[in-house]
Input
Amino acid sequence: MATHDPSETFEFRLKAVDPKLSADDVRQILAAAVADARQAMARDGQEVEARAEIEGAFGGVGETIVILLIAAAKGAAGAIGAAGGKQFYERYLKPRLQKKNLVVSDVKPRQPDDK
Output
């Protein structure tokens, strides 16, 4: 991901409601939702780079932690900041995940020593 530093790192919990969804299905839904959220935020005038990764092993069942990295897009002025990252999640990403029957928690900043 080509970004400006500093990027903001967040985490949230995710759980699939539909037991038929595989881990790969969840990963694909997550990637598509992030891409769609980025496009929607860009239409509203703020371009960001964003990537979401499922932490550790995830078999599709149960709850997992998702790491969300967000930064201002290349060429954009300044950094995204914690408020902008939270806005990306709350306004753009979270509703898209919920529409796909994924239960998500509130987002929180991820500290450098979180594992």
About this structure: Residues 1-5 have pLDDT under 50 and may be disordered. Residues 23-43 form the longest helix (21 residues). Residues 8-109 form a domain with the GMP Synthetase; Chain A, domain 3 fold (CATH 3.30.300).
